[in-house]
Design a protein that fits this description.
5-stranded antiparallel beta sheet; Multidrug efflux transporter AcrB TolC docking domain, DN and DC subdomains; 556 residues; 17% strand; 16 strands; Alpha-Beta Plaits; elongated; Multidrug efflux transporter AcrB transmembrane fold; alpha+beta
Length: 556
Amino acid sequence: VKLSGRAHDHGWFYRITEPFFVAMDRIYGNALKSFMHFRWLSLLILIGCFGLIWHFQGTLKTELAPLEDRSSIRAPVTAPEGTDFDVTEDIIYRLTAEVMDSVPEYQMIFGITAPGRIGAGSANTGFVVLMLTDPDRRDRSQQQIYDKLVDMTRGFTEARVFPNQEQTISTSFGASLSLPVQFVVQNLNFEKLREVVPQFLEEARKDPTFGNVDVNLKFNKPEIQVEIDRLKAAELGVSVLDISQTVQLALSGRRFGYFLMNGKQYQVIGQVDRDNRDEPVDLASLYVRNNRGEMIQLDNVVHFRETSNPPILYHYNRYKAATISASLAPGKTLGEGIQAMEAISARLLDDTFETDLSGASRDFSESSGNTAFAFFLALGLIYLILAAQFESFRDPFIIMITVPLAIAGAYLTLALTNNTVNIFSQIGMIMLIGLVTKNGILIVEFANQKMRSGRGLTKRQAVVEAAQARLRPILMTTLATSLGALPIALALGAAATSRIPLGAVVVGGLMFSLVLTLFVIPAMYIFLSGKKRSNVPWEDPSQKALKEAEAEAVQD
């Protein structure tokens, strides 16, 4: 069989690109050899990377997830307490008409009054839902339309209107439809809540972090408290029971029985005529009979005090509680909103109060802790696996130095692209642990082989040769992974906004660590590796076992 003489030839693409790669290998080799004379700079680079991580952790904005343009905005409506169904319905109808005039991009709009399980269910509540056309068919984004609605509804004086956008991620029931910041203030003493909640609400409304601010514990239900002057009542011969029965009979509408007239049954209800019970002062005109049979005007033995209380009392973790809800001002994130609420609570609340988070804020807090745990768990698992593979604790430590280089690059990319730290970017950082340690593995493993080759190489010679030999595989795998993640970073495709931080972290972290890894890892190998030069030729264990088996077969 005659083999073709062209079997060893390469194609035209190889002949065009190979000179470039050869020159790149030579330039990198010379640069690395020069860097080895100043390898202490690698320590400064590491310190700089840790400094970047520390800086950006304190300055980058944080949130649960970026808001997606889902072409939907919801606006809960709350009219004054006591507003009946018809009036609330008319308010929602007029609000709907104003929204239609202000937002030509609407596809559908509808309002619901007294929504039951969907909302508070009272006759003075409701909501308006605005469905927009697809993003590619309108000039304004959902965020721009939302900002316009917030400005418009501030001038709507007939009811409180709080537009909000659906959260991208929500694990709590109803959290995706509520305002993003949910801060719970708790106390065993209801009077302390009564005193603090209005102050807290006022401070939150002054804070530029928030747009609309509301609280579920509203002291808007008017009441009249009847305080009995017991000494004077005793002097006049009026008992407390007589006073309470008189007020009850006059106002409660108690049913005493039925009577029949013309074949129809009617209820017998005891109550003062409406004209005589419309005003608080009407109570003073009631009379009560004393034990001597005399009629005593009620205001002689009682004092009336007008007050207001919440129509519903709320509890959270068995505490009496109030939940302060807030939307975010343009450019603000959920993390900043929670920090602002905590700052207000530190100024106003004493040690008897407890605070907690609810809704999307609670989801954000829990996800931050969970992803941090997952990050360190991934670090530990990879280190243990590498320690088992290398049969060493030093080599995996050298390899893991690639991680802070990549994380620093990820944070820097988020800052440059004006992205936030959220659950998607945190997932990208966890991915980086596995992606960038590959580069360190290629250099360290091949350097170890060079040290065991029996050529008597020093650690410096071995690691320089290893880094040069592994340059192309490192470039190939890193560029392939980065280009694969680039469409995610560029937000190509529908509803891709939330994935931008993930792609930016992967691409930025890989490219930033690529440049530094090629110089820092060889330098750290010289500092930390415990390998000694060896003049004994090293042989691959599998090849050695194969030769031993062949020798035994020959002897047999």
